[in-house]
Automatic annotation (TrEMBL):
It comes from the Bacteria. Residues 38-248 form the Metallo-beta-lactamase domain. One of its GO terms (molecular function) is hydrolase activity. This is Glyoxylase-like metal-dependent hydrolase (Beta-lactamase superfamily II). Gene3D superfamilies: Ribonuclease Z/Hydroxyacylglutathione hydrolase-like. It comes from Melghirimyces profundicolus. Keywords: Hydrolase. The keyword Phosphoprotein does not apply. The lineage of its organism: Bacteria, Bacillati, Bacillota, Bacilli, Bacillales. It holds the Pfam family Lactamase_B.
């Protein structure tokens, strides 16, 4: 299959690679995080068992080979039972069409993300006017075209279950996108937060390249609803997660995570919301 014909974002300009690109980390025994260029994908499932596993998010355009190689190393020849998308931005769906077809598995998302995954709607343009670093200024170069998963994409169950991920629940955490979700497992307080918050300052080239860990709000140049983003962070902080994988930045755990997330929730308007930008005026205090 020619992947370029399957992905309208192929060939678009994408940000520089971080120094952690290709690095993987076992966060807990059945959650493995892989950094592909500047974004993380998660492999959820016990590699020692014969049970199924699930891929969470699908990386940047051109990520398929890295994802397939890691899956083979971790799970042998077993394909996943499903792909779960936290949202449909270009850096989280880069390989999803190819992988869904290769593995012949369903892709699950929130109903409000469906227009962006069935070819019907583009996301709002990135905001180059937003307060932030150099990445924010060049963000209009990032692709906003939808992908079209056709019949592969399904809506997540309304009751909060996550197909293929026993013990996990999905939580609606909008703000960064209308249908953004996070995934939480109560028994060990593991959290896959997507871009509801991140552990690197994503608009700073230096921070993206070095991946120095710190809890930050969602990427500024693509977040369109700051009031919803604030409430989503507070919802996740109330869970008191013990370990987290975010869409960008290194996994975090323990006191460093607790302290950083508590501060972000408490001081969100001051530390996360930009002082100016196209979407900032919409926030209500």
């Amino acid at each position: 299959m020619d992947r370029k014909t399957e992905n309208p974002m192929e060939g678009k300009w994408i940000p520089a690679t971080s120094v952690r690109s290709g690095a993987g980390e076992e966060v807990v025994s059945d959650v493995y995080s892989l950094t592909v260029q500047i974004v993380n994908v998660s492999f959820v499932g016990d590699p020692e068992s014969k049970q199924g596993w699930v891929l969470v998010d699908a990386g940047m355009p051109g990520s398929a080979d890295d994802i397939l190689s890691t899956a083979a190393d971790r799970f042998g020849g077993r394909k996943p039972t499903a792909i779960i998308l936290t949202h449909g931005h270009f850096d989280h769906v880069g390989a999803v069409v190819y992988l869904a077809k290769k593995w012949n598995v369903p892709v699950y998302t929130h109903p409000r993300e469906m227009p962006y995954l069935t070819g019907r709607s583009r996301y709002p343009e990135p905001d180059a006017t937003v307060e932030g670093g150099w990445v924010a200024k060049i963000s209009p170069l990032f692709p906003t075209e939808p992908v079209d998963l056709g019949g592969y994409v399904k809506e997540l169950p309304e009751d909060g279950r996550v197909p293929g991920m026993e013990g996990w629940r999905w939580l609606h955490t909008p703000g960064h996108t209308p249908g953004h979700i996070s995934l939480y497992r109560k028994r060990d307080r593991s959290l896959l937060a997507g871009d509801a918050f991140v552990t690197v300052r994503q608009d700073s080239v230096y921070q993206v390249m070095t991946q120095a860990p710190e809890v930050n709000g969602p990427p500024r140049y693509l977040t369109t609803d700051w009031q919803a983003a604030r409430e989503s962070v507070r919802k996740l902080a109330s869970l008191e997660p013990a370990a987290v994988v975010t869409g960008h930045g290194r996994p975090m755990a323990g006191e460093e995570l607790s302290r950083g997330l508590e501060q972000l929730a408490r001081d969100f308007d001051r530390v996360a919301v930009p002082d100016y930008g196209r979407y900032v005026d919409r926030i209500e205090h």
